[in-house]
User: Fold these one by one.
Assistant:
Number 1:
Amino acid sequence: MNFLAPLALAFAATIPVVILFYLLKRKRVVRLVSSTLLWEKFLAETQASAPFQKLRRNWLLLLQIILLALVVLALARPFFAGEVKGGRLLVVILDGSASMQSRDVAPSRFDAARDGALELVDSLDRTDRMAVLLAAGNTEVKQSPTSNKPALRRALRGCEPAESRGQMLDALRLAQSLTRELSNAEIHLYSDGALTGLDEFENEGLNLVYHRIGEGAENRGIVAMDVRSHPEDPDQQAVFGTLINASTNTAQARVELRFDDQLVESRVVSFGPRESVSQVFSVRQATDGVFALRLTDDDALALDNEAWAPALRPEPARVLLVTLGNRFLERALLSAPRVQLATAPTFEAAAGDFDVTVLDGIAPLAWPAGNVLAIRVASTNWLEIQGELEAPPIVDWKNTHPLLRFVSFDNVAIGSAIAARPSPWAAPLVESPGNPLILAGEMGPDRFVWLAFDTTQSTWPLRVSFPIFMANAIEWLNPAARRAERFQLAAGDPLRVALPDGLREARIKAPDGTEAVLTVEEGSQEVVFGGADQRGTYTVTVGTNEFFYCANLLDAHESDIQPQAELVLGRYARTEATEQRLANLELWRWLAAAGLAVLLFEWWWYHKRTA
Amino acid sequence: MPEALLSPQLLRRLEQFELLAMRRARSSLKGERRSRARGLSVEFADHRNYVAGDDLRYLDWNLFGRLDRLFLKLYEEERELPVRVFLDASESMTFGEPRKFDFAIRVAAAVGYVALCGFDRVAVSVFPERPEELPVRAALRSVRGRQTALGFFNNLSRLTAGGPADLNAALRRGALEARQAGMAVVLSDFLDPAGYEAGLRALLGRGFQVTAIHILAPEELAPTNFGDLRLVDAETGGMQEVTFGRYRLAAYQQTVRNYCQRLREFCTVRGINYFLASSGTSIEELLLRQLREAEVWG
């Protein structure tokens, strides 16, 4: 037999102390009495003059010593050497996404999750190991597998939630790799279930325990914000905002629009249960600046009550149309807002700088720099031309893409089109069976749009969707609009700043006022700032220029704080939220300590009775 | 002074009592007790035939007139009742508040006063011996007549207590010394390691009508000294270590009750009147109620 805590045997020193208490000659007060006869009779059974005589047949003392010896043995944790089954591996994943900062559970969901994980630590057996992962903007391994409880507690207390959406997929994959091929492994996920991307995760027999955190869904949030030129009035900017009500009750909220912290408009929005509402504000903008949308009412999650969007003063796009003559196209381009159109029969014949080049079936000798809309241009290295398609039917189009906003291809017939296999970085927007008809993509800083068919050989120019598509295309290809898009990012994403030639340094001021100076690396024209975890406006100073980058949450999944009863993993697997799991707390130490206390109390009580 | 021992009111009450002897008085001296001896008194007992030489003053002339025969009237001769008070004056009797010895002296005075009022002979045996008190104790050895009561009280109040006593020896000696048996009143705390049985048996064997008055101090009935104590016996000097708390008070009182009960049973089966008195209680309760109810006097 061995001992896990042999030092506890030192407590055996208390046994002689108990005996000593029994032998101890007490200091007695001398009293003269008439006769000791009655006292002798009274004490005949209990009192003896010699100390060792007193110890004789003292069952109480014997019992006390046996009890004390047992307690000391228990504290020393004796064990027999033998084969023991290996302990469990528990992987704790704390959801550190923005929705976990909801205050429907006091003090917050994240604190409740952390408390649950700490209770799990308390329940660990000595052979169990645990790892701690924090799934915030990134997945961090806060503690690699260990059975060291203080280290686990320290790691859990060091976890903080982020203001961004959570990357739960990475965390689950990491947990899966940690527990792979372990039969007695468990993954404990502390989350409210507001997670994205789990449909990509294939649950391969994972022992996943989902601890659902959160109670209510009293939240209104801003889930989308965009600033673009007003489609009806080119002199104005339209600020779009999408707001949702996560609650199952109807609600009202006051929403404010500010420009550079000046109140522009305030209005009250009514929501149905779990409804999203879009709002459009029309604003005349004189300078570059930052629009801010703000929900002024208090709710469970404060992070989604404000969003920012940088906006540059609208400038006309300079467009070169290279065509042999296409009136439909020309008129469509002219009808687009803020366009300065120039036409030329060849690209080489055009003079000056252009933001967008439209090639109407004419291939240039040298490919134009900048953004290009190419219509039936075959000689390009973007594509692999495979032949010609006759009257290809239109079977699908992606109307979620900004290019196809308000665009429909119903009743559009095409005479012929180039059959091409697109490069992987080009996204097909309109498709006939097995062949893309419109492609869009980005390569480096440039964007391009490619049409496989001649618009004049189709019924499209006769449809209302044609000028709308052209307006969308010019807006999407306009570098100014693209710059504005680059100034908007999700909190937690890296902030990239392209530097002009000759400048090596950028100064970044975070929303909380802290500043960082970044120096560009050799051979690069871009600095990357990885600390954009806070929501708000980052002011970037490069040379004498100043830009605004806005980091937002803008995530419908995070704003919908309704705790999910189950997680859907992959196509088939579902994990239901577990009820509170009873932990196997080790109690024997407490019991043994209580035994010791009772023993001491018994001794004290016994002697109090005689005093 | 008698006032110091017994109040005038109590004395007046006591004067109304007389000792009720269960046995006929045996003293050879005339007194106010009826005895078996026929003799001269006012209480008529019987007639007998006249024989020559009888005192003619006792002839019943009325009977002679009717029957023409001479009869002699016989009267019950009234004799005295010897009352012997055994007073424990050992060191243990000096304890208590009020002292047990003072209580015992007052009881002795009361018993003596009732006896003196009844023209009985009172003898007070004080033990243990103390040579310096020999004259006082000698004066208490035989007292008779009501007129001696004042001196009797004075002598009692001059008694002191001290030293170890042997109860059995004292009672045995008292039983032997008495020429006639009578009433014996034992005033003691009966806390003698050697016991009390032999002494009481000796008195009974001599023919005494015995009354045992067991006097204990309040402190002995319910001690108020708590803690780790070393108790020293005042008489023997023996020591006893004891750890005593309030939680054990009831057990101690049970021990005392058991001790008294054994003494009571010993007395009851032998026809001895037994009374337990705390020196802290009123003496009137003992004298006017308990002794009267037990028909020691009435």
Number 2:
Amino acid sequence: MHTESDEDLVKRIASGDRLAMKVLFSRHQVRVYRFVLRLVRDETLAEDVISDVFMDLWRQADRFEARASVATWLLAIARNKAWSLLRKRRDAELDEDYANTIEDESDGPEVVLQKQDKGLAIRACLERLSAEHREVVDLVYYHETSVEEVARIVGIPENTVKTRLFHARKKLGDMLKAAGIDRGWP
Amino acid sequence: MTDSIASDPKRRELEELLPFYANGRIAAADKARIEAALATDAELTARLDIIRDDMAETVLLNEHLGAPSPRVLETLMAGIEAEPRQMPLLTRAKGGFLGWLGGLLASQPPRRLAYAGAAAVALIAIQAVAIGGLALRDAGAGFQTASAPGTRASERYVLLSFAPDAKAGDIASFFKRFDASVVDGPRANGFFKVRVGDASLSPAQVDAIAARMKAESGIVSFVAATP
């Protein structure tokens, strides 16, 4: 069975094809939604953001160039909108201190460790990473992006992608160690 | 405990690539280098195991986030139905580019324009190197002024301003990525005229470059093709 490529769908969207829009939306909505939700931490806001993202795609489809994949393009737009929302909400750049103040209803890593589940403890720590660290971890570990794609989506140099991810991983290890799980690094 | 990988630049470089080895998004040459190192470096292998654990938990965490509700597609399609089809940028520009540009400039908050000025200072320093290089490369036997290359009809340009939070390093990288250079600015309103290519670029291609630049909203706050 022939599956139309994302790039072909975007060409059809550029000519006003609404069915192509629905197909592309169905193909990418879940991943874009999850990426945004991990940043904004609010389901309604995340839904509003992805609606905006796909509306931008509708408006700008004729400007798409195949140098990046459609998925990368969508994540880059989504990322910009999510951060813009976060900045408006906070009126300041998110940093670790702020991230640490974000309320999280899930159990902390110490609590889940008491429940004897290392996987749960790792996930609890992943939730507590700063927004900057969360996004690179998610992009590489979940969205399976390359160094170049992360650089494009986040708008940072490729070397910064690698060092930022390194520090995110180190931070994760530090938090787990503080919770009583020593994995030998850091 | 001392981190022996962190203190060895070669191992550190490989270590930073491990997440991309684990997700399969790595160049073949880097993959081969990592596999050769993993065969003899137990510490690096242990680090890869940690990454794989974290990767599995990250996937699980994301998979638990569910999916957007059907209302998103309904809202989107309703918005599309209500939206008149956008005309291409140049078509809009022909109908009154100056008025349109003026409206956009007027809508820029003063703080943003002020920051654009600050970003300009950093940019000028970066561009000075490039301009100096160009002047040297172009210098023939005759007299040459020390100014930046003038604008020529054989080149294509965009007008842009920088985002308030844009960092000098990111701006430098931005210019490198787009192979662009400043030919004029900062103007009083904080805008720069930037060369993006030669006359072989069609107006549609210049529009496409401008759109790609605009997508980097952490670096630029405004971009449009300009004569």
